[in-house]
Amino acid sequence: MPEATRESLTQGSWRELDFEPFRDRVMIHWIKRFESDQPGVALLRYEAGASVPRHRHEGLETILVLTGTQSDESGDYGAGTYIVNAAGTEHSVWSDTGCVVLIQWDRPVTILQGR
């Protein structure tokens, strides 16, 4: 498996990584799984039209959109966009076109309902 680095991820090396199912039509590649009180870091690959239902952030979440467009109730975020979602915030996420994002969660989210 290739090493995931800043430089290689922004240049598309994520295409060579192994992904596993995460949610319907959303795949995940764990860079660092959650451990005790340590954050989780992963790549999420959304198929066109995929979504993640409304959820609450139990800790800080940061996202870098690598390709495509990710959307939530506040807007659309294209490649290169850096998104910060504070602890306690809620939203649902989708991608009409498909996208790949680098994501770090301080803590797992709590799913609230479907989109």
TrEMBL record:
<dbReference type="Pfam" id="PF12973">
    <property type="entry name" value="Cupin_7"/>
</dbReference>
<dbReference type="InterPro" id="IPR014710">
    <property type="entry name" value="RmlC-like_jellyroll"/>
</dbReference>
<protein>
    <submittedName>
        <fullName>Anti-sigma factor ChrR (Cupin superfamily)</fullName>
    </submittedName>
</protein>
<dbReference type="InterPro" id="IPR025979">
    <property type="entry name" value="ChrR-like_cupin_dom"/>
</dbReference>
<feature type="domain" description="ChrR-like cupin">
    <location>
        <begin position="16"/>
        <end position="103"/>
    </location>
</feature>
<dbReference type="InterPro" id="IPR011051">
    <property type="entry name" value="RmlC_Cupin_sf"/>
</dbReference>
